[in-house]
Amino acid sequence: MRIRRIPLVGMAALMAVSVCGCHGSTADLTQVEIEEGYEFDESRNYEITFWAKNDTNKAQTNIYKKAIEDFEALYPNITVTMKLYTDYGKIYNDVITNISTGTTPNVCITYPDHIATYMTGQNIVVNLDELMVDKNYGLGGEKLKFDSPTKEEVVSQFLEECKIGGSYYALPYMRSTEACYVNKTYVEKLGYTLPETLTWDFVWEVSESAMRKNASGNFKVNGQSVMIPFIYKSTDNMMITMLKQLNAGYSKSNGEVLIFNDTTKDLLYTISEHAATRAFSTFKISSYPANFLNAGQCIFAIDSTAGATWMGSDAPLLDISEDQIVDFETVVMTIPQFDTDNPQMISQGPSICVFNKSDQEEVMASWLFAQFLLTNDVQIAYSQTEGYVPVTEKAQQSEEYQAYLAARGEDNDKHYYVKIDAAKLLLENTDNTFVTPVFNGSTSLRDAAGQLVENVTKDTRRKKTVDEAYMKQLFSDVSTLYKLDQIVVSEEVSEPEEGDEEKTETEKVTAKKDLGELPSGSKALLTGLVIVWSLIIVYAIYEFLKKKKNNPS
Amino acid sequence: MKKRFAVVLSTAMALSCVACSNSDTTQTTTAAEKTTAAAETTTEAEVTTAEETTANETQETTSEATADYMSYEEFLAAEVDTEVTVKAYVMDKQSWWDNKATVYATTDDDGAYFLYNMECSEEDYELLTEGTKIIVTGYKAEWSGEVEITEATFEIVDDETFIVNPVDVTDYLDKDYLSDYMNQKVSFKGMTVEPITDADGNEAAFLYNWDGSGEDGNDLYFNVSVNGNTYNFTVESYLRGAGTEVYEAVKALEIGDVIDLEGYLYWYNGANPHITKVSEHVEEGPVMTYEEYVAAELDAPVTIEAYVQGKQSWWDDKATVYLQDEDGAYFAYNMTCSEVDYELLSVGNKIRVTGYKSEWSGEVEITDAVFELLYDDPVVFDPVDVTDKLGTDELIDYQNQKVEFLDMTIESITDADGNEASFLYNWDGSGEEGNDLYFNASYNGQTYTFTVESYLTGPDTEVYQQVKELKVGDVVDLVGFLYWYNGVNPHITEVRVG
Predict the structure, then answer these.
(1) Which residue in chain B has the smallest CA separation from A460?
(2) Angstrom distances, CA of residue A54 to CA of A51, A82, A90, B42
(3) How far is A288 from chain B (nearest CA, A)?
(4) Do B486 and A286 touch (CB under 8 A)?
(5) Residue of A nearest to B416 (CA)
(6) Quick one: angle between helices A468-481 and A442-461, nearest 10?
(7) pLDDT 10s digits, B205-255
(8) Which of A153, A206, B409, B467 could disulfide-pair with A149, CB 3.0 to 4.6 Å?
(9) Which of A10, A58, A321 is closest, CB to CB, to B428?
């Protein structure tokens, strides 16, 4: 049984707006500089803390434990204490709490969005720019006691995702994307053939088709009383991805919020239409997509590739009893697209950040451990626990990993075909992935994106009228709830981005204004100040000269 | 000339500062002088005696006062301008100024007082927190219809506290007997914001001052209607000034909004409620029986009244609780609830919950709900023995109820690596201290999995530690709530061994 709905991250919105420092502002303070000839002091003992996240999956816990043991064997002077979490939001909350007391962990699994908020504190997160390239202790460094990947061996796209304000503040740890887990058996039973790439129209059409009932009131396609043909796990990803696929506004890298636009509204109307028939629902409203999929009560289940081990009739991890499972063929597909020639899907997954400490040797010990998590042993083992992919080319190209992929379907455990298909989906689509801009407040904006979908779905089910007045109120409520109107838009000039042409009134208010010419009152004040200061200076010179004249030395 | 003007200003400012500080200094000095004099002229033993005496005097005074205070009925019957002594409990503090405090206070039955400009030091004003019991002596007065106690002094009595909840007077607004609730904490439900017109004839959702002549920080006036009548309400800026939640909420009102209000029934040539809380109105349907609730469709609005049996969690102004009445049980998930209200909510309290019937992984629950504390005697239900229902379809009829499973034998549970244990952190053993506990127990040869839900009963609770001590083969009774997650998933709150 898995964790139920996680309490909302209450502090996120608050933190996002209560601090006004812009990202990058603390960069210089956290820069670790390594002097020529520096040697890590191994005569001392270090105790570092590592806050890790697992997907309620014991295999992942075991891999962390083994990584720590292996690392400590190489560096007996460093002791790593791990604290386990099952949710990124909880790690985030705890880090925020511990920033104020100066008790952050040394190393932490986290999301770049969260790091942007951590960085609003003074000197909190270590800038990795210098550390990464140090020839001795950097990535692939000569004095490391393990086979670390070089910077070039880290998948560049994943590494770039860890850049905030032009500097690296994290290392990628694992990457995943979203996949659509399809009950192919039912799609065909409904008279459809799966296209090479799913489109939104296709998914909506099949989903509506699956809502037909028989005389006994059960759904024709599965003969059961329950059928939710289309369930999306992460509704924030849903909205973000749809907007990206339509080249519509979401946000700019300087914190400008663009989400409240007409495209968003149109998408919400479509979602409402299918929520009304109950052809569509969400994790928050109904439950895990996997549970419905495996029970033959869902046809299109969109969830992370990192949830692949729960998907399908033969899934190695199950949340429902065996007698509830229905036999069907599971196909792992890219999420639905608006433009099949230009598929786009989100890149997600945990990253590793290092927290600053007054003892720079302790920071180095932390950095060494963070790097150790990129070694092949850790990367390959962890990626095999779910539909993750390793973040280094070194691991991806290794014989061990390639053999793992080739063994697809040989068993329903390590080589479960759905899991390996999910990993392959990302490997084949790495160039089609995107990330959203990271800034102080981007976590709140992400939550808001999901809230729009959740509210529309829930309110439609509750027979509320979804019209223009509703949309206006929804945008206003969600903006207020997540304090989006208080996000500080940084001064840095951002390049024109997708959706710029779609600015609405709300966004125009948020956007940085061209202040134009000074008002006449201001001009008069400034002129007055100049005159007064001039007179003071003239008077001072006059007094000085007079004094000098009266008291010639 | 400017210099001269500046000097005048500076002098005026300095004088005013001196004036202010003088008045403060005078008081402080008086107190300090008394203290110093006492310290200089008494020994340590004498000081102790003096302190004891003072304490005794206070007690004596208190007991005398307690014997002498009027009932609320007697207060109502007293003539204006007669001296009155009443017992009251602080509801709210309106203002403190120049050693004078203005306070709303309640009786412990059905009345309330407006204590206007009582003598009160700033230090004592700080002590007047909600619920504080005081004995007040002053004069009954009436000012523009407002019955109050003026020229009063008070003493704080520490023996008890009392917090009153608002009385819903929505339906009394157009009744003569509304004045019976004068000064009480009251609520108004389902009020529609109506336009209010300023002195220039402009319409708005609210005005600064009654005619729109004010600015931010002044009293707010707004109109609301119910049952076809429109009423004028106030946010009194001394009571709740700019920046307070209610002040800002009223500024954000729009004509047509339907809201619930709370405040004090002040009187000024008629009812002039001083509002302290504004919230979105949630339409309450008629209170359902458990049978009606069960029959309601998913996503339908529901209103039920039941007794809190377990508080699971509070987070981000959302509370999750187990509820039960004589016929069945409910799980209210993430109800809107402030942290203060959550603290006030006790097991046994009766509450009215309005929300939507939902289902999540088989668990039928009430979501997006608001609740109201009702004032019935608390009820805590005994657990129902459902041991014989285990493994049967009947068990779901007890969903969310407090239940017990008797004579259960602890069995081993297997983690993801195939290791056996008497309990696991998380379902597969992937967790650690602080996470949910899972354990197996059998009855009649069938084994079932039970959970200690860490939000409901975390590592600092007895049951959490007890389960960690269980050994395979132990025979125990288990008590808990019959939660559902893709099948029965009892949340155990008590283990009885032996």
Answers:
(1) B299
(2) 10, 12, 12, 69
(3) 8
(4) no
(5) A58
(6) 140
(7) 999 988 888 889 999 999 999 989 999 999 999 999 998 989 999 999 999
(8) A153
(9) A58
C-alpha B285: how far from its chain's center? 23
Residue among A10, A84, A286 whose CB faces B360 most closely: A286
Q: Are residues A294 and A401 in the same domain?
A: no
Chain B interface, mutation test: which of A84, A317, A472, most B Cβ atoms within 10 Å?
Answer: A84
Are residues A390 and A339 both part of a single domain? Answer: no
Please report the pLDDT score of residue A551 as a whole number: 56
Domain that includes residue A386, residue range: 10-176+348-406
pTM (2 d.p.): 0.69
Same domain, yes or no: A276 and A327: yes
Q: Which two tokens stand for residue B82?
A: 């007669």
Cβ-count burial A433-465 (b if 16+ within 10 Å, e if not): bebbbbbbbbbbbbbbbbbbbbbbbbbbbeeee
3-state secondary structure of B79: coil
Mean pLDDT for B185-213 is 92
ipTM for this model: 0.72
B46-51 contact pairs (CB < 8 A, 24+): none
Does A259 share its domain with A130?
no
DSSP 8-state symbol, B42: -
Alpha-carbon gap, residue A227 to A220, rounded angstroms: 10
Q: Are B101 and B113 in contact (CB under 8 A)?
A: no
Q: Is residue A400 domain-shared with residue A306, that is, in the same domain?
A: no
Residue A414 falls within a domain, yes or no?
A: no
Length, in residues, of chain A: 553
Q: Kindly report, residue by residue over A265-315, the tens digit of the pLDDT.
A: 999 999 999 999 999 999 999 999 999 999 999 999 999 999 999 999 999
Tokens of B193: 């914001």
**Do A282 and A354 belong to one domain?**
no
Chain A partners of B427 at a C-beta cutoff of 8 Å? 1-2, 56
Mutate which of B356, B426, B450 to disrupt the A interface (most A C-beta within 10 Å)? Answer: B426
- Does A357 lie in the same domain as A319? no
Give the number of domains in chain A. Answer: 3
Domains in chain B with CATH codes: 68-161 (2.40.50.200), 167-280 (2.40.50.140), 290-373 (2.40.50.140), 384-497 (2.40.50.140)
Q: Do A56 and B316 touch (CB under 8 A)?
A: no
Choose the weakest-confidence range: A55-59, A337-341, A380-384: A55-59
pLDDT at A150 over 90: yes
> Does the distance separating the beta carbons of A4 and B485 come in below 8 Å?
yes
Whether residues A87 and A65 share a domain: the answer is yes
